[in-house]
């Protein structure tokens, strides 16, 4: 069979070694707070220039896959998302770790990432051209509604106080507006400071808001930083597999959400995991457990963010439009390799593109043993490290990661200040997650809103632009369903009990 | 170490924060008047939302007070010291160099976060193992990943 030859091509010793090394390097870089998947790919791109094109592509895909999964380590063990796509992993991963189930959370994250990655890669192999054209039907209005859909997650992060969560979301949205406006070019809320002209860097802000409050609280008491599970000697693989099997619908749904969002240029793993988390919570029988250490939350976010890898390659390879930021770096590497992306890639250079696609599957499968092994030792190492040593090391990692984002000391100042503000606000009930959500989705929401508004104005009907496009209406329906589902379910429950 | 769990008959801190956010929302509205229509539409929408939410919360706290518990557990002195160390670290790393400030910052935070009795063996173990991690990561970033970490006056 035509494809079978390409499948066999990936099993050369060079490809296998490169894939394994790429996955390991990606996991290690992704696990460090501040080092994103984009940086992992960008930093390691030069190492692939000397390799044959298919091998180089496999290496980059492996690094990317590993880095997205690696982000879950810091998210689960330190409450600091290693990459922005692991934000939602902190919601349930860290509470699980605090309860002594960090090893189980890491195993579940690994299993979900593998399944998500496989779904994304299979969609890439089977459905690349039609899905890429579907992505083109997403306009600014659809992006706006997607961002709003992500923001509805604030309701589930409210921790009993919806008003404080919504206020936190507004604060995050306002923070996202600092600097030069994307549409209009106004300089906003900078206080005439050149430091703030480029806006707040999301990764630095993320480290500040999540990590600094954690270390501030770690030094405040002598108690151990993590409960130790009695089952620490095992991978808890059986338990993890059982959880994933029970939650199989969640795994598949989140994987398809991840693939779908990954296809949309510029959306990325953070939106995918937030939307998947929101859907998982909405459809759960025990939504009240979300945010308190429910494995389903970890399953949803990790399967979704790894599915964006395959999904993101669809517009990158078919249309030459990067689906996610790391795809943009990979696109540049492809051009260096002399590969011309576009529909002709699948016919003219099919041996490269299909070998790469199967290579992505291999990388995802290799992530299972590598991830489980890394996860086990990362958890053990964290437990064995005395708190007095852990705190300064984490502080150093935050400063190092914060600096490495843009090679700027100003980012560290912003990170520390935001960390202090985040700690104070969290102390009085304004949690960090809604703020971060607003900060990340604000840019997409505003750009979509303003561009949609301009298009609508030019067409003479702004409301029609926002409320009559079919895809927009589907997203709006999901938003309404997410917001009112608890109420609808309650009413159905009442009706059912009355009938009985 | 102090352990305080304070129960309030109404959310006074939430009230104070919401008053601040309400003023912030008004200030944003006022500042946004200097922006173009396109640049102002989103800040105004969010500022309006912020004002409304804060106002509703203030009314709720005043009219329908609900008991709330704030947890002020732990040593606030250590928290403040740690935060100040991070602030000084951030402001001085370009002046004195990344490695120098990181070593000083590391040792200071080690002192702040330690609750156990210091012995020579323990201190040596913690400092040596910590510094080896720190220097290894510094080399990885500086040499392998080519991140231009600031040298400053020292290194």
Give structural attributes:
heterodimer, A: 500 residues, mainly alpha, 76% helix, B: 155 residues, 2 domains, 2 strands, 5% strand
Describe this structure in words.
The complex is a heterodimer of chains A (500) and B (155). In chain A, helix 4 (53-78) runs antiparallel to helix 5. Chain A is mostly helical and 500 residues long. In chain A, 76% of the residues lie in helices and 1% in strands. Chain A has a two-stranded antiparallel sheet. Chain A has one domain (2-499). In chain A, a hairpin with a 6-residue loop joins strand 1 and strand 2. Chain A is globular. Chain B is mainly α and 155 residues long. Chain B folds into 2 domains: 5-71; 76-144, no CATH class. Helices cover 71% and strands 5% of the residues of chain B. Chain B contains 5 helices and 2 strands, in the order E-H-H-E-H-H-H. Chain B has helices at residues 12-32, 37-63, 76-96, 98-113, 120-144; strands spanning 5-8, 68-71. In chain B, helix 3 packs antiparallel against helix 4 (98-113). Chains A and B meet through helix 8, helix 9, helix 17, helix 18 and helix 19 of A and helix 1, helix 2, helix 3, helix 4 and helix 5 of B.
């Amino acid at each position: 069979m035509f494809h079978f030859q390409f499948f066999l091509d990936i099993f050369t010793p060079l490809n296998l070694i490169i894939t394994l090394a790429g996955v390991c390097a990606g996991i290690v870089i992704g696990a460090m707070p501040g080092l994103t998947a984009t940086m992992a790919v960008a930093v390691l791109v030069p190492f692939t220039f000397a390799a044959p094109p298919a091998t180089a592509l496999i290496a980059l895909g492996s690094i990317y896959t590993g880095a997205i999964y690696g982000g879950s380590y810091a998210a689960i063990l330190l409450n600091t998302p290693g990459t922005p796509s692991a934000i939602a992993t902190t919601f349930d991963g860290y509470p699980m770790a605090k309860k002594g189930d960090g090893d189980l959370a890491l195993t579940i994250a690994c299993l979900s990432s593998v399944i998500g990655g496989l779904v994304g890669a299979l969609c890439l192999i089977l459905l690349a051209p039609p899905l890429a054209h579907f992505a083109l039907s997403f306009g600014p209005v659809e992006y706006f509604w997607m961002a709003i859909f992500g923001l509805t997650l604030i309701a589930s992060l409210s921790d009993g106080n919806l008003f404080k969560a919504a206020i936190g979301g507004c604060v995050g949205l306002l923070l996202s507006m600092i600097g030069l406006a994307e549409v209009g070019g106004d300089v906003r809320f900078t206080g005439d400071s050149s430091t703030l002209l480029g806006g707040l860097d999301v990764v630095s802000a993320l480290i500040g808001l999540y990590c600094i409050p954690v270390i501030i609280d770690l030094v405040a008491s002598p108690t151990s930083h993590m409960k130790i599970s009695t089952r620490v000697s095992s991978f808890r693989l059986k338990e993890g597999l059982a959880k994933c099997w029970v939650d199989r619908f969640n795994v598949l749904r989140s994987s398809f959400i991840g693939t779908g969002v990954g296809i949309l240029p510029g959306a990325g793993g953070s939106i995918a995991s937030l939307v998947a988390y929101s859907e998982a919570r909405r459809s759960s029988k025990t939504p009240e457990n979300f945010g308190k250490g429910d494995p389903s939350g970890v399953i949803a976010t990790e399967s979704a963010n790894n599915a964006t890898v395959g999904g993101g390659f669809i517009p990158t390879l078919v249309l030459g439009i990067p689906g996610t930021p790391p795809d943009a770096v990979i696109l540049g590497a492809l051009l260096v390799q002399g590969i011309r992306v576009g529909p002709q890639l699948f016919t003219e250079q099919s041996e490269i593109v299909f070998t790469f696609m199967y290579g992505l599957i291999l990388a995802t499968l290799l992530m299972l043993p590598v991830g489980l092994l890394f996860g086990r030792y990362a958890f053990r190492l964290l437990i064995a490290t005395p708190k007095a040593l852990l705190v300064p090391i984490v502080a150093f990692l935050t400063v190092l990661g914060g600096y490495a984002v843009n090679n700027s000391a100003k980012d560290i100042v912003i990170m520390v200040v935001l960390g202090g503000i985040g700690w104070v606000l969290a102390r009085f009930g304004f949690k960090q997650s809604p703020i971060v959500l607003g900060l990340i989705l604000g840019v997409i929401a505003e750009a979509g809103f303003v561009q949609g508004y301009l298009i609508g104005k030019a067409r003479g009907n702004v409301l029609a632009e926002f409320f009559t496009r079919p895809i927009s209406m589907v997203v709006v329906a999901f938003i309404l369903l997410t917001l009112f589902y608890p109420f609808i379910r309650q009413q159905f429950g009442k009706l059912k009990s009355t009938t009985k | 170490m102090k352990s305080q769990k304070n129960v309030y008959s109404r959310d006074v801190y939430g009230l104070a924060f919401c008053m601040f956010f309400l003023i912030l929302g008004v200030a944003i509205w006022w500042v946004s008047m200097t922006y173009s229509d396109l640049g102002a539409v989103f800040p105004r929408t969010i500022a309006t939302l912020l004002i409304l939410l804060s106002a509703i919360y203030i009314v709720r706290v005043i009219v329908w007070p609900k008991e709330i518990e704030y947890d002020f557990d732990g040593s606030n002195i250590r928290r403040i010291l740690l935060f100040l160390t991070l602030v000084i670290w951030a402001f001085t790393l370009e002046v004195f160099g990344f490695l120098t400030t990181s070593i000083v910052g590391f040792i200071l935070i080690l002192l702040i976060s330690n609750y156990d009795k210091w012995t020579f063996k323990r201190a040596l173990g913690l400092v040596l193992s910590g510094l080896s991690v720190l220097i290894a990561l510094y080399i990885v970033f500086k040499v392998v990943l080519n991140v231009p970490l600031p040298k400053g006056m020292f290194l």
